[in-house]
Amino acid sequence: MTPILTITLNPAVDVTSETDTVRPIRKVRTSNIRYDPGGGGINVARVITALGGEAEAYFLAGGETGSLLARLLQTEGVSSHLVPINGHTRISFMVLERSTGLEYRFVPEGPPVQPRELEPCLDAVASHKGQYVIASGSLPADAPSDIYARMVKLAAARGAKFVLDSSGAGLDTTLKQSRVFLVKPSRGELEQFAGRKLDEGGIRQAALDIVAGGAAELVAVTMGADGALLASTQGVLRVPAIHVRVRSAVGAGDSFLGAMVWALSEGKTPEDAFRLGVAAGAAAIMRPGFQLCRRDEVLALSAAALSNSKESQPR
């Protein structure tokens, strides 16, 4: 099996720590610090690797923080390729306030990039032998809004399936200019794309409209505690959330996507792959900070959800 290619144009070093109380002005002493490689496509590659699949993560990075990001990925055993840029890779910082259980997240915009710095990623999409290409994460400053749409065309030219998880201009331009195999917006991202607030019926219709308009073959909408929805030409599959103890919502969407595409690459149907994605998202929120899902927990939750589903069916 050839690896699944992931593209991350705006990665980060994710730093997690804890404190008793977050206060203004005063120094806030933190403990239990943890460093993780981050960014949409990087996280997706980490999930695929953790589940037993093969992924290759291409990512833009620069400066000492870019070198740190590469070392963190190497430590986790993720196959990766650093594409150098002049700017310094951003650092995202999250603090857990123990007294309230609240998380405070600080996410910088990230460094601007030049068109020439994006070329190696385009070349990778065009030449890679993998069946799936996943572009996940926000666009960096100064990046052209059609960069993902250009990648879609390059992947299609060699028969690969393109998967998109982005927001704002990256999502809007790509769906208007090209056709992807799978797009995974959150509820908020879908509402931003549609230009209005959406209730349950509105989410279903907006997802079906994307399919009917030819922008995507599959639309997987993640809705947090409300579960997830999969739209295709066959209709809509609605799956409720798996109720687990929530420790952090960070990484649930990336875990969902990584598990779903990994399952598809293993020959699972879109419906079964989607259900595994829901289990992976639930497994991720059981983990603190920026930590992602673990294979054993994903499989256990998936089996339990399937068993519950069968028991709830009328006899």
UniProtKB/TrEMBL annotation:
Pfam families cross-referenced by the UniProt entry: PfkB
Cellular component terms (Gene Ontology): cytosol
Keywords associated with the record: ATP-binding, Kinase, Nucleotide-binding, Transferase
PROSITE patterns: PFKB_KINASES_1
SUPFAM superfamilies: Ribokinase-like (SSF53613)
Top-level division of the source organism's lineage: Bacteria
Signal peptide: none
Entry keyword Nucleotide-binding: yes
One of the record's GO molecular function terms: 6-phosphofructokinase activity
Carbohydrate kinase PfkB domain segment(s): 23-293
Keyword NADP: no
Classification via NCBIfam families: 1-PFK
PANTHER family attached to this UniProt entry: 1-PHOSPHOFRUCTOKINASE-RELATED, ATP-DEPENDENT 6-PHOSPHOFRUCTOKINASE ISOZYME 2
Entry similarity comment: Belongs to the carbohydrate kinase PfkB family.
UniProt protein name: Phosphofructokinase
Organism: Mesorhizobium tianshanense
Lineage, opening ranks: Bacteria, Pseudomonadati, Pseudomonadota, Alphaproteobacteria, Hyphomicrobiales
